[in-house]
Specification:
By secondary structure, this protein is α/β, with parallel strands linked by helices. Helix content is about 25%, strand content about 30%. A four-stranded mixed β-sheet has the order 1-4-3-2. It has a four-stranded mixed β-sheet with strand order 5-8-7-6. This is VOC domain-containing protein.
Amino acid sequence: MPADHFSLTVPESAFEGLITFLTTSLAHFGFKEMTHPTPGVVGLGEVIPYFWIKSYLPEGLSEKAFLNLLKTNHVAFTAENSEQVNQFHAAALKAGGTCNGPPGLRQEYHAGYYGAYGAFVRDPACGVNFEVVCHLGE
Protein backbone atom coordinates (compact mmCIF):
# COMPACT_ATOMS: atom_id res chain seq x y z
CA MET A 1 0.00 0.00 0.00
CA PRO A 2 1.55 3.38 -0.98
CA ALA A 3 1.84 6.17 1.55
CA ASP A 4 -0.60 9.07 1.23
CA HIS A 5 1.20 11.82 3.13
CA PHE A 6 3.71 12.35 5.91
CA SER A 7 5.09 15.16 8.01
CA LEU A 8 8.36 16.31 9.46
CA THR A 9 8.46 18.51 12.54
CA VAL A 10 11.31 21.00 12.81
CA PRO A 11 12.19 23.90 15.11
CA GLU A 12 10.97 27.33 14.04
CA SER A 13 14.53 28.45 13.28
CA ALA A 14 14.85 25.74 10.59
CA PHE A 15 11.32 25.93 9.14
CA GLU A 16 11.80 28.40 6.27
CA GLY A 17 15.30 27.15 5.48
CA LEU A 18 14.08 23.59 5.03
CA ILE A 19 11.19 24.69 2.79
CA THR A 20 13.58 26.70 0.62
CA PHE A 21 16.06 23.81 0.41
CA LEU A 22 13.40 21.29 -0.64
CA THR A 23 11.62 23.49 -3.17
CA THR A 24 14.97 24.45 -4.72
CA SER A 25 16.43 20.93 -4.73
CA LEU A 26 13.30 19.25 -6.07
CA ALA A 27 12.04 21.99 -8.43
CA HIS A 28 12.84 19.88 -11.52
CA PHE A 29 10.17 17.41 -10.31
CA GLY A 30 7.59 20.20 -10.04
CA PHE A 31 7.84 20.00 -6.22
CA LYS A 32 6.63 23.23 -4.66
CA GLU A 33 4.89 24.83 -1.72
CA MET A 34 1.20 24.14 -2.24
CA THR A 35 -0.52 25.33 0.92
CA HIS A 36 0.29 27.24 4.09
CA PRO A 37 -2.95 26.63 6.06
CA THR A 38 -1.73 28.03 9.39
CA PRO A 39 1.44 29.68 10.64
CA GLY A 40 4.15 27.08 11.09
CA VAL A 41 2.56 24.50 8.77
CA VAL A 42 3.22 24.04 5.06
CA GLY A 43 2.14 21.39 2.55
CA LEU A 44 4.52 20.54 -0.29
CA GLY A 45 4.08 18.36 -3.37
CA GLU A 46 3.69 18.34 -7.13
CA VAL A 47 -0.08 18.05 -7.67
CA ILE A 48 -1.40 17.69 -4.12
CA PRO A 49 0.38 18.36 -0.83
CA TYR A 50 1.75 15.11 0.56
CA PHE A 51 4.86 16.25 2.43
CA TRP A 52 4.01 18.46 5.39
CA ILE A 53 6.47 20.44 7.46
CA LYS A 54 5.45 21.67 10.90
CA SER A 55 7.29 24.12 13.11
CA TYR A 56 7.32 23.00 16.73
CA LEU A 57 9.78 22.58 19.58
CA PRO A 58 8.79 19.80 21.99
CA GLU A 59 8.54 20.94 25.59
CA GLY A 60 11.63 20.17 27.63
CA LEU A 61 13.83 19.62 24.57
CA SER A 62 16.45 22.17 23.61
CA GLU A 63 16.61 23.30 20.00
CA LYS A 64 20.13 21.88 19.72
CA ALA A 65 18.99 18.46 20.97
CA PHE A 66 16.00 18.54 18.61
CA LEU A 67 18.22 19.35 15.62
CA ASN A 68 20.51 16.45 16.58
CA LEU A 69 17.48 14.13 16.61
CA LEU A 70 16.40 15.36 13.19
CA LYS A 71 19.73 14.20 11.77
CA THR A 72 18.53 10.62 12.31
CA ASN A 73 15.64 11.13 9.85
CA HIS A 74 15.68 9.86 6.28
CA VAL A 75 13.26 10.89 3.54
CA ALA A 76 13.38 9.39 0.03
CA PHE A 77 11.69 10.55 -3.17
CA THR A 78 11.29 8.41 -6.31
CA ALA A 79 12.83 9.50 -9.60
CA GLU A 80 11.78 8.29 -13.03
CA ASN A 81 15.35 8.04 -14.26
CA SER A 82 18.96 8.44 -13.21
CA GLU A 83 19.19 11.93 -14.72
CA GLN A 84 16.60 13.17 -12.20
CA VAL A 85 18.76 11.69 -9.44
CA ASN A 86 21.77 13.59 -10.81
CA GLN A 87 19.73 16.80 -11.10
CA PHE A 88 18.59 16.51 -7.49
CA HIS A 89 22.11 15.91 -6.26
CA ALA A 90 23.50 18.93 -8.12
CA ALA A 91 20.61 21.23 -7.11
CA ALA A 92 20.74 20.12 -3.47
CA LEU A 93 24.46 20.83 -3.24
CA LYS A 94 23.95 24.23 -4.89
CA ALA A 95 21.21 24.94 -2.32
CA GLY A 96 23.69 24.38 0.50
CA GLY A 97 23.20 20.69 1.22
CA THR A 98 26.01 18.38 2.27
CA CYS A 99 26.78 15.42 0.01
CA ASN A 100 26.83 11.89 1.40
CA GLY A 101 28.50 10.60 -1.78
CA PRO A 102 28.13 10.98 -5.53
CA PRO A 103 25.20 9.40 -7.40
CA GLY A 104 25.79 5.89 -8.60
CA LEU A 105 24.59 2.31 -8.72
CA ARG A 106 24.25 0.61 -5.36
CA GLN A 107 23.67 -2.98 -6.34
CA GLU A 108 24.34 -4.19 -2.82
CA TYR A 109 20.66 -3.32 -2.18
CA HIS A 110 19.27 -4.87 -5.36
CA ALA A 111 20.06 -4.80 -9.06
CA GLY A 112 19.10 -1.49 -10.61
CA TYR A 113 18.99 0.54 -7.37
CA TYR A 114 20.37 3.87 -8.53
CA GLY A 115 21.15 6.52 -5.97
CA ALA A 116 21.36 4.81 -2.59
CA TYR A 117 23.89 6.80 -0.65
CA GLY A 118 25.05 8.35 -3.89
CA ALA A 119 22.05 10.64 -4.11
CA PHE A 120 21.78 11.37 -0.42
CA VAL A 121 22.12 14.98 0.68
CA ARG A 122 21.74 16.45 4.15
CA ASP A 123 19.82 19.70 4.17
CA PRO A 124 21.59 22.74 5.65
CA ALA A 125 18.73 23.73 7.98
CA CYS A 126 18.22 20.49 9.97
CA GLY A 127 20.65 17.91 8.66
CA VAL A 128 17.87 15.55 7.55
CA ASN A 129 19.11 12.93 5.10
CA PHE A 130 17.19 13.38 1.81
CA GLU A 131 17.45 10.88 -1.03
CA VAL A 132 16.21 10.70 -4.57
CA VAL A 133 16.27 7.18 -5.96
CA CYS A 134 15.53 5.49 -9.26
CA HIS A 135 14.94 1.73 -9.12
CA LEU A 136 15.50 1.28 -12.86
CA GLY A 137 19.28 1.58 -12.88
CA GLU A 138 21.26 3.92 -15.11
